[in-house]
């Protein structure tokens, strides 16, 4: 059905203007004033911003970790994302050494296909590089439309890859048009510090942070950036938490290296002290890299404002406090790593960023939607409001105030990382390809309506004639 959105203020990464939007066949058909279309439903966005749907490039739904599986799957996870104003997620497909890559990809299709209420794509984990894996990767890119690869520099003996694997992945990515993502922490030193802490009887959640100091994130980030420069390739550093890592990314970019950085809401508003909460409550805040000392928050905000960091992901990876996080009582290394973030990603950045003058509206859209769409082969189909783009649209009330709580969120997990935090601004209605997923803060979509997205190669626009270059 045709729809016309009226009376809203349209905001993209480059513009802010009053206009009406005609939606037809799932796409933005026209932008202008006094629009009319026979039989069109009129949607009143008075007093609201009209944003392009959020693109979250970093989620973990239905992911096995530490002997358990994340509480939120592709159904509850994408429902939470939709309520938060995110219309596209890119999830991480984990692989096993010696197993064909297509098997892992098929597993993730089975996890998602009948459950997602918003659109989604996959990144592919690279745990080893050999002739067999290299022979499979072109098909992953060209036929599966998976054009980004994740390499872990942490989680020794579980997910961690060595430097040869990282470098060869970078070299392949340069040749074949893929973007390499890296979890940058020095896993070898972390493994030593963890064993030492446990041997000394230090088992509480705070030691998760103390055994993963920010110097080790900075070191790994710098190492990955230097290998990227050596390979003349492209790198995306996920979940940047601290000044040490920001400095390494900024230095690499000044040298002309093709390095991009992502941070997450939790690192902007929470700090290391949360891991010291009594009665094992600190376990709720155990994820990797860990929360840092509070002074790092100003560094991250400045990096978002000045362009040293370019995107805001969620690193959504939720585990129940009861029954899952509790697996680490008496041994912090056994606490499942991750937290519930995806639903509050946009609201926190708007409230703490835009409302407090740290970033402007255009930067808000750039950070939550447009830049990720460009980097991961979705722009301009996703990530903007323009004629021909998918009608992924968020009608956002900038003035409503609310308190974040597990009692009102839409995820399945039993706690909220931002419990009790007051925020201003939230999505009212959310569309994916012109159809409501959330309408007037009520879920109206059914599981399985989300579509898998085959993505373009790095720096290759989806629609050449309507594209903007990555810069």
Map the helices and strands.
Layout: E1 3-6, E2 9-11, E3 16-18, E4 20-24, E5 27-32, E6 41-44, E7 49-52, E8 54-59, E9 64-65, E10 68-69, H1 74-83, E11 86-93, H2 101-112, E12 119-125, H3 131-142, E13 148-152, H4 163-176, E14 179-183, H5 187-199, H6 206-210, H7 214-231, E15 234-237, H8 243-254, E16 258-263, H9 265-269, H10 296-306, E17 311-312, H11 345-354, H12 361-375, E18 393-403, E19 422-432, E20 435-439, E21 442-443
Parallel strand pairs: 1-6, 2-7, 8-11, 11-12, 12-13, 13-14, 14-15, 15-16, 16-17
Antiparallel strand pairs: 1-4, 2-3, 4-5, 7-18, 9-10, 18-19, 19-20, 20-21
Structure description:
The protein has about 475 residues and is an alpha/beta fold. About 30% of the residues lie in helices and about 20% in strands. It has helices spanning about 75-85, 100-110, 130-140, 165-175, 185-200, 205-210, 215-230, 245-255, 265-270, 295-305, 345-355, 360-375; strands spanning about 5, 10, 15-20, 20-25, 25-30, 40-45, 50, 55-60, 65, 70, 85-95, 120-125, 150, 180-185, 235, 260-265, 310, 395-405, 420-430, 435-440, 440-445. Strands 8-11-12-13-14-15-16-17 form an eight-stranded parallel β-sheet. Helix 7 (about 215-230) packs parallel to helix 8. It is globular, with a radius of gyration of 21 Å. The two termini are about 35 Å apart. The relative contact order is 0.18. The model is unreliable at about 465-470 (pLDDT under 50).
């Amino acid at each position: 059905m045709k729809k016309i959105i009226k009376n809203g203020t349209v905001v993209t990464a480059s513009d802010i203007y009053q206009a009406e939007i005609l939606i037809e066949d799932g796409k933005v058909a026209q932008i202008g004033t006094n629009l009319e279309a026979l039989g069109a439903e009129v949607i009143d966005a008075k007093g609201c911003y009209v944003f392009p749907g959020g693109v979250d490039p970093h989620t973990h739904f239905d992911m096995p970790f530490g002997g358990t599986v994340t509480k939120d799957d592709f159904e509850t996870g994408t429902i939470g994302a939709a309520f938060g104003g995110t219309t596209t997620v890119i999830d991480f497909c984990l692989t096993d050494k010696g197993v064909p890559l297509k098997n892992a990809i098929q597993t993730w299709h089975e996890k998602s296909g009948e459950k997602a209420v918003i659109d989604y794509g996959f990144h592919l984990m690279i745990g080893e590089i050999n002739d067999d894996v290299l022979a499979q990767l072109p098909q992953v890119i060209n036929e599966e439309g998976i054009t980004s690869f994740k390499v872990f520099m942490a989680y020794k003996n579980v997910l961690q890859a060595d430097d040869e694997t990282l470098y060869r992945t970078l070299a392949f990515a340069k040749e074949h048009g893929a973007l390499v993502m890296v979890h940058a922490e020095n896993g070898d030193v972390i493994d030593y510090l963890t064993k030492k802490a446990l041997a000394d009887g230090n088992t509480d959640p705070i030691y998760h942070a103390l055994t993963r100091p920010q110097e080790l994130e900075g070191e790994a980030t710098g190492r990955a950036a230097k290998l990227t420069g050596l390979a003349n390739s492209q790198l995306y550093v996920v979940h940047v938490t601290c000044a040490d890592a920001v400095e390494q990314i900024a230095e690499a970019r000044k040298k002309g290296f093709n390095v991009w950085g992502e941070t997450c809401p939790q690192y902007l508003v929470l700090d290391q002290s949360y891991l010291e909460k009594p009665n094992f409550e600190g376990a709720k805040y155990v994820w990797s890299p860990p929360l840092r000392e509070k002074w790092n928050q100003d560094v991250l905000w400045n990096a978002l404002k000045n362009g040293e960091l370019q995107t805001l992901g969620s690193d959504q990876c939720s585990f129940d406090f009861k029954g899952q996080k509790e697996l680490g009582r008496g041994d912090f290394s056994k606490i499942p790593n991750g937290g519930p973030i995806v639903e509050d990603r946009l609201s926190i950045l708007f409230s703490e960023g835009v409302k407090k003058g740290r970033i402007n509206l255009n930067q808000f859209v750039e950070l939550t939607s447009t830049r990720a769409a460009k980097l991961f082969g979705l722009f301009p189909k996703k990530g903007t409001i323009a004629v021909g783009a998918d009608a992924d649209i968020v009608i956002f009330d900038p003035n409503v105030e609310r308190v974040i709580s597990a009692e009102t969120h839409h995820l399945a997990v039993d706690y909220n990382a931002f419990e009790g935090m007051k925020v201003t601004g939230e999505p009212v209605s959310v569309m994916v390809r012109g159809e409501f997923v959330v309408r007037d803060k009520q879920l109206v979509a059914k599981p399985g309506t989300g579509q898998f997205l085959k993505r373009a190669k790095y720096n290759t626009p989806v629609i050449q004639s309507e594209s903007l270059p990555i810069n």
